[in-house]
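Researcher: Quick sanity check before group meeting.
Model: Go ahead. Protein one:
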Amino acid sequence: MAVGALVAVSSLVKEVVVVVDGEHRPVRAFAGTVAEVLAEAEVSVGYGDVVSPSSLNEVDDGATIEVRRARPITLTLDGRTSKHLVTATNVGDALAELDIAPAAGGKFSATPADAVPLEGMELTVYTRRKVYVVAGTTRLTSRTTARTVREVLRQKRVALRRGYQVDPPLSSFPKNGTVITVSPPRSVPIRSDVLQLDWRALAMCESHGNPQAYNPDGPYYGMYQFSLAMWQAVGGMGLPNTWPEDEQTYRAQLLYQQVSGKWQGQWPHCGERLFTAAAS
């Protein structure tokens, strides 16, 4: 009877392999379900952990149970921070879980082979983005992982002189497609009565509002058809039509102030359009 009982009991014992984060643990258990086997093997399951097969499944002799423990990751992606749980044990697999491709050429605070500890980690990623720099006659395209506009300009060796205007601000994050403009100093404020004139109407008359307009007869350049001499007289650099719209408008307003509103010399055919808003 004792031998029979022993045989009967031994037939209930199951040889199971429990794999925890890649580590194999042979287990002899009497349990019937996955959850019971893990309890006998003193393998706890916490929030976010993945168990395969599921905890309620029946266990057959020779079965393999896999447990992947959840690891918290604080991810800062292109300056934005979020929190995640991953079951990957290395950074490369964690990036795959987060749908971030290391092969895309970004900048990472850890290598793909680095371990993700059970207590979690912080991971910083800057993707490779395409941004543009406009500085006078200079036009640059940059594929960069830079964290700030200032860093992009430093990488492209764009010198910033005192008083130069940079848009967007130097400390801002250059997202994909950002156009960074560097403009000469605007040390002279524009009076409110000059700002209220209809500069859009003037530009439409002079150049159909085209910042890149060019008239070889003068030659005249840009939205407001500056001569090169007048552009330089108001502090403009390079050619007027290589600068963004707001820079051309500022220099036109400055010119109007410097000639005390005597617009006839610069805009003899279209200058009256400055006053259309007031007339209406």
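Researcher: Fine. The other one?
Model: Protein two, sequence then structure:
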Amino acid sequence: MDDWTTSPDRALAQRNAEGWTFLIEAARDLRTTGAVAPSGRALARLLTDPVRASGAATLDVLEAGAGTGAVTRALIPALAPGSRLDVVEANGRFAARLRGLVRAHPLLAGAAQSVRVHHALVEQLDTRRSYDVIVSGLPFTNFAPAQVEAVMDRYLELLRPGGTLTYFAYRGTRLARALTSSRAEARRHRAVEDVLTGYQRRYATGRWTVWSNLPPATVWQLRRPLDTPRPTPAVPVGASR
């Protein structure tokens, strides 16, 4: 399957197809598909900037919540030779699509083993590897506060000291939930934002808004401090599938 494009017409057709795929999967399960559309190019590039900033350095990279692969396609050409990319996706249909992308991508010819797709929740990722960069596309505002805390703690556990985490959040979601959802749902949303604010205060090194994305999104960059002990990954709750 050809998962990248070489012409504007094909690129548009691909983005339209991915948009419909997102809507269908979101209707099935908001826990695994919380985005309303695939990440736009500007958003994908900003999320993956820490990889490009490393230049020719060999990296271990984790992408969580990859969806249909918009960010994965930005990551693959940014990887220096010898780097490894683990892609984690909880939605089985998306995971299958991502495996097709990896098999067919021309830059991975003869080196497809450097990118591995895991069908799993990131909290349950069965790995002893630690990472220099983690890129998260998970829909935190659809989670319970305790789930968000579990995921963020897992990210920090998997990051090497000095490693970087990027994630994004759509702008205006709190107001939208307050206007359209129940009070309980609005309280849950505020509680999630409070959890994320705590991590931002401790670890954030940058924040940017991508106004050209649909909808506009804020990208956060967090860094694990250098003076913390090297993480020892916990025994996973479940194995990747």
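Researcher: One line on it for the slide.
Model: The chain has one domain: 8-223.
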